[in-house]
Structure formats: C-alpha cells, structure tokens
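Weekly structure sync, notes
Attendees: PL, DS, HV (note-taker this week)

Item 1: Glutathione S-transferase
DS walked through the input record. Source organism listed as Psychromarinibacter halotolerans. Sequence as pasted into the shared doc:
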Amino acid sequence: MTYDLYIGDRSFSSWSLRGWLMFARFGLPVRTHMVGLYDGTLREDLSALAPARLVPVMRTPEGTVVADTLAMAETLHERHPDAGLWPADPALRALARWLVAEMHSGFGALRGDCAMQLLYRWDGFAPSDAVLADIDRVQQLWATARAASGSDTPWLFGDYSLADVFYAPVAARIAGYGLAAGPEAQAYVDAHLAQPDFRRWRAMGLTKSYDPVPYALDLPTSAWPGPAPIPARAVDSGPSENETCPYSGDPVTHFLETGGKVFGFCNAFCRDKTVNDPAAWPKFTALLDSTS
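Item 1 (cont.): predicted structure, written out as tokens:
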C-alpha cells in the first residue's frame, strides 16, 4: 500500500513541498522520486506519468496517476478518511477547503515576486503594494480560521491539517523575504519553520548546490530564520561512535563530527542531510543521546 511521489528540487519547489507534507505529516507510506525540475529533464522524467507535466505527481498503489496538489489532497482524503487530513467538523472542513482553494488559485503577486527558496533570508527586499495586499489577505484568512476553530495550537484548525500543508510555502516566503507580519501570523510562520517535517525537507534540499542559484536577487542574505541547527560538519573518516547507519542499518562509509564525536552513515546523502540540521532527525538524535 505504498504510494509513489514525484517531486522537484526541495529548496525551490513549493508545490512539491505541499505534496510531500501530505504524506509525511499524516504517516502515509510513500516512496519519493526526484525529477529534474531545474536540470532540464522534467519532461523525460515524467513521461511515464503522462499527461502529468508538472510536479508533484503521485501514483497510487494500484497504479492510478494523480497530478495537481488539490486533486492529490482530495484523493488521499477519500482513501484515508481516518488520517485527519481535513478537520472533522463539517463547517471547519468547509472553511479549510476554502482557504486551500484560495491558496491554490490566488496570491499571484506573492508567488511571482517571492519565489519560494529555503536557502537563506533576503535582506532589504522591498515588497510591492500587490505583495503587501496578498500578505494582508493571507493574515485575514489565517485569523478567520483560528477564530472559527478556537485553535489553541500553532495550527489553523487545532490539529495540523491540509490547510497548514498548503500554507507552509507561504510561511516560507514570509520568512525567506523578511516580509512583515503581525504577531499571530508571525507565530504561525515560526511554527512551520520549527516543524520537524519541514526542517527535514529543508535539510534534504540543502544537500544540493546550485550555480547559478534559481531566482537570485541582487540583495544581501542572512541566515535562514528557522531554529539554529546544532553545529556539525562532514569529515573524511572515522572511527565513528556507530557501526551502522542510523537510517538504513547498513555499514557506515561517510562521517560527520558534532560535539567532538564522529558518527557514521551509509552514504553522502544520509550524512549531509544530517549535517544540515542534526536535531531534525529522530533516529540520529536518539543515537546522539545514546553516546552522551
């Protein structure tokens, strides 16, 4: 009962982030496949999934291909009605669908002027009046959801839902461009940046470098405004505290150092995603704790 999910570059593909969070946040089994969104191989990589032509795309365990995140969301809800993808209350579910639909089809200025990027924060970005209007509208919708649901959690409808999935890239845009938001909206943005699945997605994205960087601006940058990662660095060799990779269980071949100790992994990707944000990975933090 495992799905296949085809995604683009994690640092820049906002739609792929939505698709991945649908599975990661609700515990649905999935295999991810990277396609060449910025490498020129997108059409070839998706050829077996035609007429799908954009990411993300999912294939059900039975082989049905579903493209477009809104279609994916509804299909997953139909197939997993007890997973909690939408709010249980009918009125709140209707409101959540409204917020998702408006996100799916609107906010053109925010999308066009502030392409999602998870590398750093642009300093000195001057938003247009249209972008500011989009941010005002986003904050109005978020406040409406929280008021209707009486949420006392970081999320719009109490429990994390598809509404939060669809607004995760908006939170990333507000963070990545230093866009001004009110205290309640900023707290919601900060919750996304600290959410472990979001942090893991970003950490995996940082394993790939770009030259040139997509959507680059002629502006200075500063550190990504999410939680500061535990300092770690790749090293050439062990010995390591562990003999097998904390993720795969395979023998270690690649190494990182943190806190004066060396840990091993089965490949460069496992090591590098951990270097980028060690605290985002429960299996690694369990290993780290076991040696303290």
